[in-house]
Write a structure and sequence with these properties.
alpha+beta; Creatine Amidinohydrolase; Creatine Amidinohydrolase, Chain A, domain 1
Length: 499
């Protein structure tokens, strides 16, 4: 396997996925958005509802991304929009305030739907965004209850400013509304919207499944193309290219591509190191698709074959993930998954000599801290959806059919592990006992992360297209490479200027 490769192939049938994206988006339009709005107003009752979309970026060359709660309730993806709903006597009136059509502006930012197009597209009444303040003041006359949804920096909700966070554009808009309507009572409705988002519809799950499929395709694509001497950003570029080639909106988060010592940094995203033979590569990369996120991590050997030490750590992590999987079913709490995974990690680390025993502790600032936390210091997983760290119904209790989340155990053996353990008499024996194991496994950071949907009888691992078994990874890495040859002179020039 060399570092010079052929033109990249399309791992997924791109045309199929793009047409699928359009079909799935059509499913999630009205009447589903209308039912979401009705669920919110039915829950909170009569009053005026103000839902603020994201503003136009200050620089017209920057990408615009819609506010997630606004997108959830409207599906409208243009900047500077707002939704006003008036609920009275159990009946709703919805008005979508949008930028009017303006050919002089549209030549810069693209065609706008305009006021006239709102009803055809969404079924709502269209209004000119420039009239928002006047209309809002009119419907709020008499001190009507206002339910606000926006990007607020409010510690106690929309009506309680936070002294620690900077004030947002939405804060300022709401402040002006309250200044003009002194008797107004404001309630932050963000929590209620997020609770609604916690239960995913069939259309939402279809988009998340496709996000996972596209993300898994990117992980599989890079396996044949990793080789010693490459830079981490080459892998990042190939993965993100594959996302977009197959209809992904953009990366779900800053891609984490960490080799060698960087594999032990949880949120490493500089992605700018030349990889060496004998190292592992930790890749946490995924895409949004139709607005919904996946989240996948794989750890692979740069040389194409796991060393004995790398296999040891990888097996512990994979066994922990599978232990958590066995607890996935409706009615179980996420804590049951976590307890199962942690039990495997505790025993595995002790077996490798990285801790004194499964339940051993060390002295840390006067406290007895579990030794295993030196190598596993993050949570087991999180919900996914419109945000990569989303909300789910299980957040308030038990898993239900349709819950969607990640399971991502990890073990990170930093080369300086012994040095970061406080040098106290109580820790002396521990530091000495694990020193040789730390040296053996130093700079091996392994995380395995998959995406799951709870089914009636168990679960579906929707990211399964990305190989995770050792034999499967090695088999994919042994295949002929698929990317274009890079310019070696450019690479060498970059080495000279690299910080």
């Amino acid at each position: 396997m060399g570092t010079y490769h052929r033109i990249v192939r399309a791992t997924l049938p791109a045309v199929f996925l793009l047409s699928t994206a359009a079909a799935l988006q059509a499913q999630v339009m009205e009447p589903e958005y209308a039912s979401r709005r009705a669920a919110l107003t039915s829950r909170l009752g009569d009053g005026v509802y103000l839902v603020l979309g994201a503003s136009e970026p200050e620089a017209n060359y920057e990408n615009f991304w819609q506010a997630q709660n606004f997108r959830y309730l409207t599906g409208f993806l243009e900047p500077g929009a707002a939704l006003v709903m008036v609920r009275k006597g159990g009946r709703d009136r919805a008005m979508l305030f949008v930028a009017p059509k303006d050919p002089a502006q549209e030549v810069w930012t693209g065609e706008r739907l305009g006021v006239e197009g709102v009803r055809t597209k969404s079924g709502m009444e269209g209004r000119d965004a420039r009239t928002l303040r006047a209309v809002l003041d009119s419907v709020l006359a008499g001190g009507t209850q206002l339910f606000a949804v926006g990007e607020f920096s409010r510690g106690g909700g929309a009506d309680v400013p936070s002294s620690r966070a900077p004030r947002t554009v939405d804060d300022q808009f709401l402040d002006a509304v309250k200044e003009r309507n002194r008797e107004l009572k404001v309630t932050d409705a963000v929590r209620e919207v997020r609770e609604l988002r916690g239960k995913k519809s069939a259309a939402e799950l279809a988009l998340i499944r496709t996000a996972a499929r596209v993300s898994a395709a990117a992980h599989k694509e890079v396996l044949a193309n990793v080789a010693p001497g490459m830079n981490e950003f080459e892998i990042q570029a190939l993965a993100e290219y594959t996302f977009r080639r197959n209809g992904g909106d953009r990366p779900s988060y800053g891609s984490i591509v960490g080799s060698g010592p960087n594999s032990t940094t949880l949120h490493y995203n500089r992605d700018d190191r030349f990889m060496n033979a004998g190292e592992v590569l930790n890749m946490d990369m995924a895409t949004y698709y139709g607005g919904y996120s996946a989240d996948i991590t794989r750890t692979i050997p740069v040389s194409g074959k796991f060393s004995s030490a790398q296999r040891d750590v990888y097996t512990v992590v994979l066994d922990a993930q599978k232990a958590a999987e066995r607890q996935v079913k409706p009615g179980n709490g996420f804590r049951q998954l976590n307890d199962s995974a942690v039990a495997v990690l505790r025993n595995g680390l002790a077996r490798l000599g990285l801790t004194e025993s499964a339940n051993a502790t060390y002295e840390n600032g006067g406290r007895a801290t579990p030794q295993y936390t030196l190598y596993y210091m993050h949570g087991l997983g999180h919900p996914i959806g419109l945000d990569v760290h989303d909300v789910d119904a299980y957040s308030a209790g038990q898993l239900i059919e349709g819950s969607v989340f990640t399971i991502e155990p990890g073990v990170y053996v930093r080369a300086n592990t012994v040095d970061i353990i406080p040098d106290t008499p109580a820790n002396a024996a521990f530091r000495s006992k694990i020193a040789s194991a730390v040296k053996k496994y130093a700079n091996i950071g392994v995380r395995i992360e998959d995406d799951y949907v709870v089914t009636k009888d168990g679960f579906e691992r929707i990211s399964a297209d990305a190989p995770r078994e050792i034999d499967d990874i090695e088999r994919e890495m042994a295949k002929p490479a698929t990317t274009t040859a890079r310019d070696s002179a450019m690479v060498e020039a970059y080495r000279k200027i690299r910080p």
